[in-house]
Specification:
mainly alpha; two-stranded antiparallel ribbon
Amino acid sequence: MPARGRILNATTNTAFSPALAIYAKCVVAATFALIFIGGLVTTNNAGMAVPDWPLSFGSLNPEGWWGNIPVRLEHGHRLFASGVGLLVTVLFGWVWFGGKHPRALRVLTLMALIGVIAQGVLGGLRVTIETGGNPHLALRLRILHACVAQAELCLLVAIATLLSRDWLTGVWTSAGANFSAIRRLAWTAVAAVYGQLIVGAAMRHIGAGLAISTFPEANADGGFMPAVHNKFVDLNFTHTRFGAGLVTLLILTLALLVLRRARGEVRLTSPAIGLLGLVLVQVSLGVYVIWYVKPITLTTIHVVNGAAVLALSLLLALRASRFAKTAEVQP
């Protein structure tokens, strides 16, 4: 019999643990908080406020760090990141040694553990390499650090989804429905959103966030295409116009497809409607960031909301895949 407080999935013989499911969601929430803090570090240009690593000014907790805002941001980011690393380590141990779980889930937690360690090392190397006099390599590591953060979030969202009550004990069939098209478009949206976040990270870290300082016009003469071309302008245009338009179109198409083909299936319609709301907020934030010349808090919320779009897109893709796979094996 399953342990007390667990519900056994008759299909996979996997026990649902309410405590583990809640804990996995808390790890996701902590990761969002870490992304927000990391965004504040970047927006405030505080990444090198502490020039050494793994210690901070030669100490685990330097005296007076709270009184200096850039140091507070960077050292606080390190402390919070260490806490998230500990949370992920506990999640890994709980899944691997705390009961029977599918191999795919165990692999995901191992990847998450490796990812959070790699993320810490990347952040530290960025500091030591820039302090050592190689800012160009450090810049590449800063961008990679931001990209790995989003990948780590995806891993943790997938783990939390696979540990959820509904995933393990719910009924994943819907009479007469075909979810294959939703699955394909949902995964396309996930890839597009992640690509958009990569471009956004590169734009932020090279300082191209206001390379085009007007919106919707892309040049001072009122045209919608840049009047000049360089890596700053082209990267900005790719993110703020092309990428933003593509992602918005994909999410809108995906939501309409879900509402038309999966009407009444709240596990798909709810995230689809949520995505519409998040994309509307994201576009609005992006416009206001340009109009108000990158206000710190608004710019950072834009980063976190982008991560939320990615997470919800992934949740929808996973659920649509579960429905589609179940339909494929039905006689």
